[in-house]
Every structure is written in structure tokens, then in C-alpha cells.
Amino acid sequence: MNDLTAPRRQHIAGLLVLLGWQSRHMLRAAWPILIAAYFQNGNDAKYFLWAISVGAVFTLVGAVLHFWRFTFNVSGGKFHVHKGVFVREKINIPLERVQAVHIEQNLIQRLFGVSGVRVDTAGTSGSELRIHALKWDEAQALRSLLTAERSDTAVQHEQVNSQAEETASPTSPTPRRALMDLDLPTLLKVGLSQNHLSKVAFAIGGLVTFQGFAWEIVSELWAKVPSLWRTVLLFLSPLLLVFSPILIALGSVLISVVTSVLRHWKLRIWVEGSKAKRTSAIHLTQGLLNRQAMQIPIHKVQSVMWESTWIRRLFSMDTVHIRQAAAGGAISSGDSGGMEGGNAMRMGIPAMNATRTRQLEALLFPTWPQRKLVTLRPEKYAFWVRWLRRSLALTPFALGLGWWLGTGWGMALGAVLSTWSGWLSRKVYRGQWATTDGSHLSAHQGWWFRKRVMIDWHKLQAVELIQNRIHERRNVAHLTFHTSSGVAHLRFLPTDVARDLRDLAMAQVHAHRGPWM
Fold this sequence. Notes:
- This protein has 517 residues and is an alpha+beta fold.
- The chain has 16 helices and 20 strands.
- The strands form four sheets. A seven-stranded antiparallel sheet has the order 6-5-4-10-9-8-7. A seven-stranded antiparallel sheet has the order 13-12-11-17-16-15-14.
- The longest helix has 28 residues, at 42-69.
């Protein structure tokens, strides 16, 4: 049994982890100095090296002081943290406010047999705090205490003991329901279905960055090539222009596959606990180099988002994000029709097929659909507005070509761009729709990159109806559903439908008598 009621420090290995973590942040901030030192002569570069050395010393001293002044404990139904070097901070987090506890192990932590813990609440954007090194059993005990949601310390310790016994025993009586075990063929499909555009940019950036070093190596090898083979290679050199895009594309796909394997290696998802006692939670473990273990209590799930690209749809799979309450989650940002919110920890699940999606819906939204589904679609006015906006944005290109090559070419390009923007606007318009059963909302958007968001109306924070004078004359309005994990938009609905939907959603909030989270 690990006594976590008395204030204690992290494992001594946390000093090395903290030093590496702070050094990484320092290098990110000091990279302009490193580049400047590289281009200086030997006499001037020593000043940059002195500056880097002083920064390294301050980093080391700061890591030691941060480690020594950081203590934590759990007592009285709260998580107490004391930290700070020159300015002392005391953080008290009620256990019922803890949204998620994320356990992770990188290579250094694995080497010393420790793990890191991140505690997330709805009080701040992102992680509330981070503990860099705890023994694995201590991290598990701390997570059990923080997710117990009860102030009686003795009862919490009993829960920790029982959970430890259940984990140690292979014949544990605790109900455990497996949702997914990601095998290697499916994992490779996940890598192949990633967005490769960012990887292409990464590959091109790597070539540009190391072209000088690579050119020196090629020059040395070229000097050793016999003259006959030089003639042959020069003759075949135009083929590089043909095969280089293919090589870059293959490199980007390889990077996607490798990163997916490293991130989702041995991914396992299961459900454990009792819904009646509000202890049921979704558990996830994954990772090869950076091992992660995360759990989300089911009653704290605020929204669920399905995402898919055309590549993923070829493999009949989606990526699911299970979101919890986040700071600023009910603040609208942008103009998209999907779910937006803070940067709190969320559980991402790849390779969700139709069967797994139905299982997840039955788990998180057991009453869906409670009644006959009603389909909601935006008015045709939304298509015309989007087409007009795109056409006006593309008009300068047509005018520029007309001024450069002549009026005929400008008019031809304008017609092509207008037709293309109309086709694209129609695709986007037809991809925006929603269904509701009077208690839940499932909102869809997109055609190339598709998103689907599900929310439970009794967990809503607010419903906002927006209508300006032009919309009023066109008899349309926008609806924004605010949750503690983000906002969902339904745009260009008929005014009567938007008002009825707003009233129905707020009636669900007022009529609900149980806890909302």
C-alpha cells in the first residue's frame, strides 16, 4: 500500500526527466542563437557558446529547485500540490473536479522504472499539473485515488487496495469488457490512412535543411565514380525529376506508418467498473517508445467526434475523439460546423469500424435513438452564400490573368473558377446535416474530410440562436450548442425549426434531475 496522504516528492529519477523536459524547451527557444553561432567565425562564436553554457547552468539549477520544492498528497477529498521556487503556489483540486489522469512512460522513465502522471481538470486549458516520475504502482494508486470522487480517505484506500488486488489477480471478479485490441495489419492500415500532406512537408523540409551536408557527400562520391559511369548517370539524371516526387511520397507514407506504429503499438481499449456506482470508465493503453495509459469516466464524457478522410473511408474506418470538460470549452471560435473547444486531454481511438462505432454509441449514449430520428438540413440559401463568397475570393485571380494575357483568358479563367467553386460549395452544402431524437444531437459536416459530433442535450451549458437582419429577411438562423468540451454549430436552419430546437434542447436541460457529469 502506498501512503499518499502525507506530502511527498517525486522519485529521484524525476530530476533527470525534468532536466530533459526543460532542456527541450530551452532548445526550442534558443535555436536562433544556435543558427547564429553556426555562421559566426571561431572568435565570435565563443560568446554564443558562453551564453548557451550559462543557459544550461540555469536550466540545471532550475530543475533541481523545481524538483525539491514540488510536493503532493491526497487528503480530505482533495489533491494538494505545493510547488514554486521563488513564488510558492498551493493548488487544491477537489477529486470530483478531476477530469482525467493520464499515465505515460518514455524511454528514460522506462529505464528507471518510473512513469509520468498528468492530471487534467476543467479549470485550466490543458493539463492542470504534471508529475514527472513515480513508481508504476504509485502512479496507479494515485490515479485510483484521484478518480474515486469520494472525500472519505479510508474508503479511498480500500478502493485502491481492491483495485490493486484485482489487477494482480488474473481471475479478477471486476467486470471488464474489451472494446478493441489493435492488431498489426489494422495498425498498418491506420498508418496508411493518415494525412500525408504534413509528412510531405516534413520530408521536403528535411531535404532542404540537409541539402548542404548531402551535397558534400554526393560530391565526394561523384569524384570516385569512373568517367564511363559518370556519362551514364548524367544521361539518366532527367529521370530524377520524374522519380523524386514518387520517392518523397513514399517517404511521407513511410513516416506516417512508422509514427502510427510507435504511437498506437499494442493499443487496447476496455470498459471496467459499474455504471450504477458511477465507477464505469473507458481505459486505453498504447505506445511503443512512449507508453501511455489513460482512463475516462463514462459519466464525464461531454462529446464524441468521428473524423474520416477519403483514405480512411477506403479502409472503412474512422478516428474517434472522446472529449471531456475543458477550460474555455463553451467558447465559440471560428466559423466551422464542427466541435471546437479547449486543449484538454482527450482520448483518440483509431480504426473505428461500423461494429465498434455501434458498441461505443451503446456505451456512451445508451438511449440513442430514444425516439424516431428527425433530419435537419440547412436552407438552400447556405449554398448560394458559400458560392458567392468563394467566387468573390477567386475573382482577383481572374482579373490578374485578364490584365496579363487579355480579357478572353480572364473571362475563361473566371468561368472555370466560378464553376469549380459552385461544385465545391454544393459538396460542402450537401455534407452539412444533423439528426436528433429529442434528447441527443448528431451533427455531420464535410465531404472530403468528414466529421460527426454527438452530444447529450442534458449536458448542455447553453444554446445560442444567432440571426442578423439579412438572415431574418431570408427566414434563416444559426444555432450554437455550448458544452463544457466545445461548441457545435447548426447553420442556416429555418427560423421556426431553430427556435423549436433551441426550446426543446433547453427543456431537456431543465427537466433533467440527475447529475450532468
